[in-house]
Amino acid sequence: MRASVEVYVVPRGGQVAPSADPVLLATRAVGVQSTWKDDRLLEIHYSRARVEGFTAIWPSIANNPPMVEIRLSPPTTGFSFAAEGDS
């Protein structure tokens, strides 16, 4: 069975608040890995996933702490989910 994945961004040393929304919510996820490119850019790579929710910036409302850009990076060839024929 494939995993469900939730990715959260928090300030360094912080914890996820109970009211926090994930920057990525994916089901049937395989090979999900995140990489910080610098202090304000997070890339999320995956082999296969059904992306149920995604936001490209964090935080989405407050201006403190500094804004972070989030990028999804699916496989470079083929489909990341549609090839399964599952809708």
Describe the protein.
The chain is an all-beta fold. The protein has one domain. The protein has no helices and 7 strands. The chain has a 4-stranded mixed β-sheet, with no helix packed on it. A 3-stranded antiparallel β-sheet has the order 1-2-5, with no helix packed on it. The radius of gyration is 14 Å and the shape is globular. The model has no long low-confidence stretch (mean pLDDT 86).
Give a count of the beta strands, DSSP E runs of length 2 or more.
Answer: 7
Shape: globular
What series of H and E elements makes up the topology?
Answer: EEEEEEE
Q: What does the main sheet amount to?
A: 4 strands, mixed
- Major β-sheet strand ordering: 3-4-7-6
Which descriptors would you attach to this protein?
mainly beta; single chain; 7 strands
Put the structure in a nutshell:
The protein has strands at 3-7, 24-30, 33-38, 41-45, 48-54, 57-58, 68-73. With 87 residues, the protein is mainly beta.
